[in-house]
């Protein structure tokens, strides 16, 4: 794996990482990835430190072509930063034959709390369906996975006022995350997956610590969701209350 940085960088220290939660937004300029940008922006209100990541799949053999492809990748991430209206957002270009594997490596190397995706491109507007890369990371991925509904950035985004927790989720980390996120956003936590602004799902009890793994019931609930979904790794709640303001 190989990652390069584009755009301004903040100091990279153990102390800073201890005081921040990082959300990596998977971005390649598609409409679905604009949904991911919108969800990242909404969740960012809780204090998440956002990063944009684009995964390239090969190195060009000709140096001039490689320089051009790398430049295009930098421009793509710059457009994502403009969309976020945050030119200071950190941007990462990752080289990997698989988008999912590249993002998993980046999340582990950056100790990221979350990876944010849009839905699969054929998903009906207002519904959720994990794209191939997200689906891969829903099986033993190293960070929480957030998925935006299709067309979220054009028609369905709204403030998070009610956070639902999927009943029967085996891992209490989802419940702890829901209340911590609710405290940061001023949202109410409810014991339902219907008519909510964000659905929290826990990982299976068989999942290794710090890894995401879904039950068939949880998978079905995600497919039925009409709100953004956040799947929390087992034993790894997102403690937003630990964040401090500089």
Task: Give a written overview of the molecule.
With 246 residues, this protein is of the alpha/beta class. 35% of the residues lie in helices and 19% in strands. It has a ten-stranded mixed β-sheet with strand order 1-4-3-2-5-6-10-9-7-8, with helices on both faces. Strand 7, helix 7 (173-185) and strand 8 form a beta-alpha-beta unit. The chain is globular, with a radius of gyration of 17 Å. The two termini are 33 Å apart. Residues 7-18 have low confidence and may be disordered.
How would the blueprint of this fold be written?
Elements (H helix, E strand, L loop, with lengths): L1 E5 L7 H5 L3 E5 L4 H14 L4 E8 L6 H22 L5 E6 L3 H12 L3 E4 L14 H6 L6 E4 L4 H5 L5 E4 L7 H13 L2 E3 L7 E4 L14 H9 L4 E3 L15
Parallel strand pairs: 2-3, 2-5, 3-4, 5-6, 7-8, 7-9, 9-10
Antiparallel strand pairs: 1-4, 6-10
Task: Give descriptors for this structure.
246 residues, single chain, alpha/beta, 8 helices, 10-stranded mixed sheet
Summarize, please.
This protein has 246 residues and is α/β, with parallel strands linked by helices.
């Amino acid at each position: 794996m190989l990652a390069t940085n584009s755009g301004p960088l903040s100091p990279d220290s153990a102390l800073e990482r201890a005081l921040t939660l990082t959300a990596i937004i998977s971005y390649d300029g598609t409409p679905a990835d604009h949904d991911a940008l919108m969800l990242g922006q909404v969740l960012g209100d809780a204090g998440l430190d956002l990063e944009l990541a684009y995964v390239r799949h090969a190195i060009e053999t000709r140096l001039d072509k490689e320089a051009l492809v790398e430049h295009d990748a930098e421009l793509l991430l710059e457009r994502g930063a403009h969309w976020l209206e945050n030119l200071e957002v950190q941007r990462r270009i990752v080289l990997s034959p698989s988008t999912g594997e590249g993002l998993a490596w980046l999340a582990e190397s950056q100790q990221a709390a979350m990876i944010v995706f849009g839905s699969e491109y054929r998903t009906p507007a207002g519904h959720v369906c994990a794209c191939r890369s997200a689906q891969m990371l829903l099986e033993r991925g190293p960070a929480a996975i957030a998925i935006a509904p299709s067309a979220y950035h054009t028609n369905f985004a709204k403030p998070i006022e009610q956070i639902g927790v999927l009943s029967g989720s085996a891992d209490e980390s989802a419940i702890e995350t829901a209340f911590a996120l609710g405290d940061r956003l001023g949202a109410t936590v409810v014991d339902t997956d219907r008519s909510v602004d964000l659905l929290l799902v826990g990982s299976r009890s068989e999942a290794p610590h710090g890894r995401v793994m879904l039950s068939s019931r949880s998978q079905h609930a995600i497919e039925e969701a009409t709100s953004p979904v956040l799947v929390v790794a087992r034993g790894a709640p997102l403690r937003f209350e630990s964040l401090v303001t500089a």
